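Morning!

This is the sequence you dropped in the shared folder:
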Amino acid sequence: MTLDIVRVRRRVRGWGGHALRRLGLLPAGTPDGLGDDAALLHRTFEQRVVVYFAGTSQNLYQLRQWYSALLALDTVHGVLVVCADSRVARTVAAEQPLPVVTVGRAATLEAMAERSGTAVFCYVGHDNGNFGALRTSSVLHVFLSHGESDKRVAASNVIKAYDYAFVAGQGAVDRFADELLRFDAPAHVVPVGRPQLDALVTGPRARDREEPIVVLYAPTWEGSGAASAYSSVLSHGLHLVAALVADGRFRVVYRPHPRTGVSDARYASADAAIRSAVVAAGDGNRVDADGGDAYRTFASADVLVTDVSAIAFDWLATGRPLVVTVPPGTAQVASTRLLATVPRLGAQDVAKVAELVAREVDLDPTADERAALVDYYFGTIGGATARFVAECDRVVRERDDLRTERGRA
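The structure's back. Tokens below.
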């Protein structure tokens, strides 16, 4: 094959990829890479902190929950949001006031950070696209996460790629120390609390005894494989909702995970069936799937039924009863304080869910144990945004000191 033919084929592939991106025909979950790179070639930014979001709209829930804390940080150091997908960038720009740009090439981002004197890159999820940004050596890299979790990914070895992981509390520090080999958790894992819970309404919801019990059913998505298949949508969902509705003592609020069905069409079908059943039940039963934050939904619920997921931990802070499903199949679940404390619901026991939920609301037998877990996983509820901003400020100053030591700005 001649060199000219190779060049032509490469050029055709390049044109084809560009056309697919422009036409929006990329596979689901693939960033379009339509960056502002040309316009950014010589541009500098005054913001000291970049939040790099490599995902597509399916994962925007990870970034949305950080908007409020990032706005607080912006008043101290300035925050720039960098997206790898132009469609996501437009959405983020419309939803909040922080400046947003799209960068398609890692080299553009690296040069922009060096030129601007950017100090810190922050990341909200374990997207493979993060590694393009992680090559930037002029900044310190901080993983923020999008919640506590007993999922295996919550103690992923990928965390070693970042200079720091900001976590909610001691539970996460212990998780990394217990699960990862050759990782110095105390040096790299920084508890800051959970800023998303600062304004959370806690304690039992005011409810007359005659009023229905409001059950928030908020399952997670199906995961990317059998080891991470924690979702109860397929194994529990429709029967669980039917049992609660038929009992008459409950109202169900169904809140599906934004990624439900992206890996397995069976879960998308099951999700659609659950939504239809909830809507058909009427009488206060409803679906909450607008993609907004879950904490707004918390305020109107008396008890949560969920899967092994981050929402279970956030709910702990409300002080209200919690039931966690037993995942079907071979999903890997760690032995944790949370799962050892709260009642578990296997698929074979779904018919008894009404009795279980009623008992938990009326008697709440694990209330004291859950209160202790709040301190272990989150520390003090309230003030986490201030702690987050303070730790970001510390990392900015650390980065600047390190650069000065090396004779660089």
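Headline: The radius of gyration is 23 Å.

More detail when I'm at my desk.
O.
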